[in-house]
Amino acid sequence: MTVRTPMTLASIEADAGLKAALALDAPGVVAEVKDSGLKGRGGAGFPTGLKWELAAAAPSSDGKRYVICNADEGEPGTFKDRLILSEWPDLLFEGMTIAGYAIGAQEGIVYLRHEYAYMIEALEGRLERRRKAGLLGDGILGKKDVSFDIHIHLGSGAYVCGEETALIESLEGKRGEPRNRPPFPVVSGLFGKPTTVNNVETFAWIAAILGKGAKWFSAIGTERSKGPKLLSISGDVERPGVYEFPFGVTIAELLKATGGEKAKAVIVGGASGHCLPPSDFSRAIAFEDVATGGAVIVIGPNRDLLDVVENIMEFFVDESCGQCIPCRIGNVKILEGIKALKKGECSSEQLLDLTGLGDTMQVSSKCGLGQSSPNVFLSMVRNFGHEILDRAPASA
Ligand SMILES: Cc1cc2nc3c(=O)[nH]c(=O)nc-3n(C[C@H](O)[C@H](O)[C@H](O)COP(=O)(O)O)c2cc1C
Ligand code: SF4
After folding, report:
1. Are residues 58 and 39 in the same domain?
2. Which ligand is nearest to the CA of 370?
3. Among 109, 159, 197, 371, which is best to mutate for testing ligand 1, by the most ligand atoms less than 8 A from CB?
4. Cβ atoms of 211 and 20 closer than 8 Å
5. Do the beta carbons of residue 82 and residue 73 sit within 8 Å?
6. Could you tell me which residues come within 8 angstroms of residue 278 by beta carbon, excluding any fewer than 6 positions away?
7. Which ligand places an atom closest to the C-alpha of 42?
8. Ligand 1 within 6 A of CB of 320
9. Distance from the CA of 142 to the center of ligand 1, in angstroms?
């Protein structure tokens, strides 16, 4: 895998974060994470410290709580967690151990993307080494009252299992279908117990934050998006790969670094992201501007945008779990509309109906999959009217 720009995670001192965490009490660790301003790196950007505070405070009849690492990494165009899993898995395990201490959990589970099965042996080896070094198991770092262990669960190969409640259902041995929320996993997660689900990158930054301090982390980035961010940059660029930038980097800066200056569009956020035109390339990657879990797909000048969005909608038709109608039917209808547009058989009135359907899916689908699957299509129609509308005659 190509790795570009210096990676902060490569320079983090091993287990300094865990040692620093265990020198604090559990609420002290949560406070440090809150002070850092860290927001989840899986896409939604929920504040990690607050999530942990809620999981620690939620009642549990037998005291059980769980820490889950979401390593499902199924978003098309995202491959930055694979870098952490293959290069710095100890940072991830260290971050999970810190989370266990902070919320009072003794068990951690890595839900590993099915296609990453080839990594299991190496990851198991690292876990065993950590047990032998007293970094996992009972009495971590000689502290009698601190116990935590981690096991790896191979994912089921469905994109929807990256959605945290579907992931939990899958871990419980059921079909990976999203749950109704509330209750949220922090209150009732795995087997009904308080559970924090965090992204691989989130846990890696936790180890760095505890090791180097909340102030170090919060000095990087923007007012509302703190710290560095790993981005998987692919598509029509000369130098695809995983890059690290501080939040606030502009899309134009990403294109320059990757050799993608000729782009006619950039999809930020992967298949469920937004398709932005050159007039938006001065915008920043940040939760308050253009948010992303890490996927940046660059579209070169010679590509047909309808080919791109057709490919994306085929993905969603395959991956919809079918539980709710807006997503189950809506994705199929948008895909049919795109195919008709390509043949010049979709009128502008029908196109208007399709965008209305997309708007409805965003507000009425049960989970994030259906809420975000029309995003690329809708943003293309909005931002590339000339290219899309020209293909839709006034009446078919
Ligand atoms: C369809 C769908 C797929 C998702 N896939 C992933 C994934 O592969 N990895 C991930 O960390 N989060 C994924 N998420 C987001 C998770 O539901 C959840 O917000 C995240 O794991 C929380 O971690 P964080 O707070 O550290 O970001 C997905 C969400 C949806 C709706
Ligand atoms: S939005 Fe789609 S993936 Fe989510 S529950 Fe409904 S059918 Fe399933």
Report:
1. yes
2. 2
3. 197
4. yes
5. yes
6. 263, 264, 265
7. 1
8. no
9. 34
CATH at residue 329: 1.20.1440.230
Tokens of 381: 């129609």
Question: pLDDT tens-digit profile of 166-219?
Answer: 999 999 999 999 999 999 999 999 999 999 999 999 999 999 999 999 999 999
Residue nearest to atom 4 of ligand 2 (CA): 367
As given in the structure block, the two tokens for residue 76 are 């098309």
Helix (H) or strand (E) holding 36: helix 26-36
List Cα–Cα distances, 214 to 87, 91, 137, in angstroms: 24, 17, 27
CA-nearest residue for atom 20, ligand 1, is 42
Domain of residue 331: give its range: 305-389
Q: Residues with beta carbon inside 6 Å of ligand 2?
A: 160, 178, 320-324, 327-328, 365-367, 369-370
The Cα-based distances of 203 to 92, 146, 164, 330, 394 in angstroms read 5, 19, 15, 35, 52
Bridge-partner residues for 96, per DSSP? none
Q: Are residues 312 and 293 in the same domain?
A: no
pTM of the model: 0.97
Domain boundary among 198, 218, 238: 218
Domain membership flag for residue 65: yes
- Looking at the structure of the chain, the number of domains it has is 3
pLDDT in tens, 5-42: 889 999 999 999 999 999 999 999 999 999 999 999 99
Pocket lining: 369 vs ligand 1, CB cutoff 6 Å: yes
> Looking at ligand 1, which atom is closest to the CA of residue 167?
17
Q: Contact, 272 vs 372, CB < 8 A?
A: yes
Ligand 1, atom nearest to 369 Cα: 1
Average pLDDT, the chain: 96
Q: Which helix (H) or strand (E) holds 199?
A: strand 195-199
In angstroms, rounded to a whole number, what is the distance separating the alpha carbons of residues 375 and 275? 8
Q: In what order do the strands lie in the sheet with 228-235?
A: 3-4, 241-246, 228-235, 295-299, 265-268, 274-276
Length of the chain: 396
